[in-house]
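thoughts on both lines:
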Amino acid sequence: MRGRVHLADGRRIEYREFGDAAGLPAIYLHGTPSSASEGRWLDAPSRAAGVRIVSLDRPGYLGSDARVPASPLGVADDVVAVADALALDRFAVVGFSGGAGYAFATGYAAPGRITVVHVGGGLVSLAGPAGDAMPRLRRLAFVVMARAPLVSRPLLGGGFRLFRRAIEKRLGSPVEAAEWFFDGPARGAQVEAVARYIHSTPPDDLRQDLSDHARATERTQAILDDIVSYASPCPFELGQVDVPVELWHGDDDPAVPVAFAERAAAELPRAALHVFPGEGHFVFHSHGAEIAASIARHGALARPEVVRC
């Protein structure tokens, strides 16, 4: 089931909810490209920990209208607007992969509202020193696409069209489709964790989530907006993000080198870095229970005490 928030400027943000509907709230920001359905990855551990996951289609993806111009701080404003509409006073923010910069931006922009920021496999600005850790050709591709969007758009669209077709042709068997999707970036303990997730999730839910992911690859402008954000200097100093931040990263992550997390941890004033030997990109599967427990712990600390007379 999808919900929708109408923003003051007339745009819409769509979301899905997972976990415990009465639990301590966290807003989930998906990777690139993806959708609100990605939040299901934390559904079971969040139900167990008493955490409510409000997972957004980030601006420009699926049911959410694009923000023009696009910017991390603009997305942070949208996150706060959704929290206001849902009457969430204090809440956690969770960002996966390409959603990391937007999670940091929300922590920077609204420190009085954020209980904790969790980032898994997070990509931060390639323009900073951590960008040197990205393989040279991949970094160059990001920079070229960001600087020449008119040329990049058809190439990017064509590449994702092949990826989308590969998912769609497997959707008759959702388990097979999910195994194909997670293969490669899942490494170490994540392989078994992903297998448990696939086989414990109802096939119709897997099919819907993968279909949403496939549809998200059609949103070329949103993907380009993300790429421009990655290739640009961060619009704020990470040292100004004055909220607790927990970084989760595998040291064998083929998508985002662990140096990005290490650099972010060195700059963030209140960071806890969790690095997992031999693990790949999908830390939310192998460490979802720890993340949900941390969200619940920080959320409970932020609740006002009830004074009884």
In short: The chain is about 45% helix and 15% strand. The chain has one domain: 2-301. The longest strand covers residues 12-19. Residues 149 and 246 are 33 Å apart (CA to CA).
